[in-house]
Amino acid sequence: MATTSVFNGSVDVNQISLSSLDGKKNMSLIGQVVTINIFEEIFCPIVYAEIDIVDSADLRSSFPLIGEEVIDISFRTAGNKEFISYKFFAYKISNAVTNKTDRVKTYTIKCCSMEILKNSTLKLNQRISGSSETIIGNILSNSQYLNSDKQLSFEQTKGPQDLLFSKISPFQAIDLIRRRSVSQKYISSSFCFFENRRGFNFCTIEFLLDQGKDYVKDKIFWYDSLPEVDAKNVRVRNILAMRNTSSFDTANKLQFGGLNNIVRKFDIFTGELSEITFNNYEKQDQFKFASDNPTGMNSSFFEQNYGSDSGYSMLVPHRSDLADTFIPDSLGARQAFVQKIIQNLYQIHTYGDSEITAGDVIKVNVPSGKGTTSDQAALNKLLAGNYLVSRLRHTIAMEKHRLYTNSMELIKGWYEDNI
Questions:
Q1: 5 — pLDDT class (breaks 50, 70, 90)
Q2: How far apart are CA 203 and CA 157, in angstroms?
Q3: Which terminal residue of the chain, N or C, has fewer Cβ atoms less than 10 Å from its own Cβ?
Q4: Is the dihedral of CA 322, 327, 328, 330 positive or negative?
């Protein structure tokens, strides 16, 4: 009886199909695909992909490919129960090359979420009122707008939105709402709107960190793996490469209000000017991260001596005769929080794991330089801990032995509680 060998990076590709927009034509692309790259990120409203093709059957002319096609992709890490699926609109062909015999053509099909079709043709010219999550949900699902059937996961906001849209696309309108939204629970109000394999998400980065830490489970990755751990983590969830793309920058943090900033609120109705000061030393414990007891990235000595004066100020117009939007009160904390999360960014390259999606929290274990041991105290206290996956690339090489890898950008913003 024949058996299928499973190795690190193994992947089951269930479907790579091409169909016309009207559904009348369809065919499998598995034999023509060389590489698939699928990109998710918490700073982008849609998922997008690049598919490299070696076309020996003149598919581009015979199907034909005219920019009105749909590509369905379904795959899973070998051994996982569920396939993950993506449906893309193929909007562009690039990097087209024909060999000397004119028989084999190579090119890249660029794809993105289907919602881009309506987003590219619609312009909103109307006044919309209500909570942020209600308006965004309506823009996504209403047949007059994006008409999407994907699930929206959202965080509750406070304060009403009363906006007049003029000649902006649906995703531009959502982004405007995102920037004006204030969280009921998390003081940073660091809202993002993005799509991952589960659907659309409207929430703060704080929410992703705070809630995600409870769902890490076995999503534990090892850099220079310790020996006495679960076999799956050693064989599959090893980190092949790890790079620090943005280290701490204390001068930049001070300059842009990471430790202290002022919001000047100007009341257009009365002409009054008031100030709201955010002092990180006094309020940083209110921020939520993916650790139960996170440690700040600066010492209390440093914050007391250099964080007492503001290096950054913002002027915000306000109308006291209208319902409170809470925007001026939230900007200081948002500015400080953003400076925290951009201080230490990492990129890791791992074997593919279809359970991971953008917005997840994973745990990274990095041994200290003192040696490799199973003792938890031997972990690198600056690098090890929980991270938010802010960007994720799925790469599938369609070779004889198909290879699936992930590249991830990781956000931390704090040190672990045992530093």
A1: low
A2: 9
A3: N
A4: positive
Alpha carbons 257 and 345: distance in angstroms, whole number: 19
**In sequence order, what are the beta bridge partners of 18?**
27, 71
Sequence-distant (6+) residues with CB within 8 A of 231 are none
Looking at the DSSP bridge assignments, the partners of residue 351 are 405
Beta strands of 139-280 (E only): which ranges?
152-154, 157-158, 161-168, 182-183, 191-196, 199-204, 220-222, 239-246, 260-267, 273-279
d(CA 88, CA 85): 10
Number of H helices, E strands in the chain: 10, 23
Q: Is the pLDDT of residue 292 over 90?
A: no
Instruction: Give the strand pairing for 220-222 and 361-365.
Output: parallel
pLDDT, tens digit (0-9, with 9 covering 90-100), for 349-386: 999 999 999 999 999 988 876 655 454 557 787 888 99
Q: Strand runs (DSSP E) across 218-297, as ranges? A: 220-222, 239-246, 260-267, 273-279
Interatomic CA distance for residues 365 and 274, integer angstroms: 47
What one-letter code names the amino acid at 152?
L
Distances (CA, A) of 320 to 127, 269, 273, 324: 21, 6, 12, 7
Of 151, 148, 13, 9, the residue nearest 72 (C-alpha): 13
Q: Compute the distance between CA of residue 362 and CA of residue 391 in angstroms, rounded to an integer.
A: 13
Please tell me the distance from the alpha carbon of residue 86 to that of residue 406, in angstroms, as a whole number.
16
Q: Which two tokens stand for residue 47?
A: 């998922």
What are the distances in angstroms from CA 241 to CA 61, 183, 238, 348, 391? Answer: 41, 36, 9, 6, 16
Q: How far is CA 180 from CA 142, 148, 330, in A?
A: 22, 23, 10
pTM of the model: 0.91
User: What's the gap between Cα 46 and its chain centre?
Assistant: 10
The tokens 């956000």 sit on which residue?
A: 411
Task: Say how far apart CA 410 and CA 241 lie, in whole Å.
Answer: 13
Cα–Cα distance for residue pair 207/229, rounded to 1 Å = 30
Q: Which of 233, 263, 208, 191 is nearest to 413 (CA)?
A: 208
